[in-house]
What we know:
- By secondary structure, the protein is mainly alpha-helical.
- It has one domain.
- It has helices at residues 2-23, 39-42, 50-71, 75-94, 100-119, and strands at 28-29, 32-33.
- Helix 1 (2-23) runs antiparallel to helix 3, helix 3 runs antiparallel to helix 4 (75-94) and helix 4 packs antiparallel against helix 5 (100-119).
- The two termini are 17 Å apart.
Amino acid sequence: MALLSGLGFGLPASYGLWHFARYHYVWNFLGFPTHAAGPLLRRAGVFTSEALIAGFVLVCAAEVLMGVLLWRGRPAGRWLALGLLPVELFFWIGLVLPFGPPGGVLRTILVLWDMRAEHQGNNPIT
């Protein structure tokens, strides 16, 4: 799930960053703006900028790293999954990316389930 989310959001965001830096307007992907003016603009006054999109691209890259670590069964992947979730939620909600939160919640449930199973000594994943 982390790999899917990281690549699924990260690749379009990378191109969107290039597009925004070059043309100074948000790129549309399949007819939808890649960085909508959501709560970040309405409530916090944060306008879309190269820095905002670059921050999101970095979060997506960290998600891909997390996915690799989780796939290999590394404990660091679980801790990264839990630590990165609030930052991901900031971007998913702030940029109006509706598929992010359900995937993040499901991923977190699976990570916590894996941590609980390992703590009990019967880890079904590793």
